[in-house]
Amino acid sequence: MTKQMLMGLLATGLAALSLNASAEGDVAAGKLAAETCQGCHGVERYFNVYPTYHVPKIAGQSAAYIESSLKAYRDGSRNHGTMNANAANLSDQDIANIAAYIASQGK
Q1: Are the C-beta atoms of 82 and 4 separated by less than 8 Å?
Q2: Higher pLDDT, 13 or 58
Q3: What topology is assigned to 3-104 in CATH?
Q4: Is the Cβ–Cβ distance between 73 and 57 less than 8 Å?
Q5: pLDDT tens digits, residue range 16-37?
Q6: In the structure, what pLDDT confidence band is assigned to residue 1 with cuts at 50, 70 and 90?
Q7: 42-47 — which CB contacts under 8 Å span 24+ positions?
Q8: Segment 73-100 mean pLDDT
């Protein structure tokens, strides 16, 4: 199984978690959905090995920015292989939930 397929399956599973969520972001559902985000974005001064780049911490970022970014990764207008794979199967509700959770975190 390729990494992209695995990420797609994970995203599909996360999408199923928020089927009953409201139209606005649900922080509790977002916390569950954002667990995979923490593996990179929750690590202080994290740099990816290859290609080498700084992975930004996103805690406390505005919900609007997170939503916009995830939608752009999902539709391919923002290009980053790992992020495109992570966002590929997220629904608008999943994205709203993740954004609400991330925005609720202190910087």
Answers
A1: no
A2: 58
A3: Cytochrome Bc1 Complex; Chain D, domain 2 (1.10.760)
A4: no
A5: 444 444 458 999 999 999 998 9
A6: low
A7: none
A8: 96
Q: Determine the residue type at 14.
A: L
| Cα-to-chain-centroid distance, residue 94 | 9
Q: What is the 3-state secondary structure (H, E, C) of the chain?
A: CCHHHHHHHHHHHHHHHCCCCCCCCCHHHHHHHCHHHHHHHCCCCCEECCCCEECCCCCCCCHHHHHHHHHHHHHCCCCCHHHHHHHCCCCHHHHHHHHHHHHHCCC
What is the structure's pLDDT at 43? 77
What is the structure's pLDDT at 3? 58
Cross-strand partners of 53: 48
Helix axes 63-75, 92-104, angle to 10 degrees: 140
Do 102 and 30 touch, CB atoms closer than 8 A?
A: yes
Q: What is the distance between the alpha carbons of residues 47 and 100, in angstroms, rounded to a whole number?
A: 25
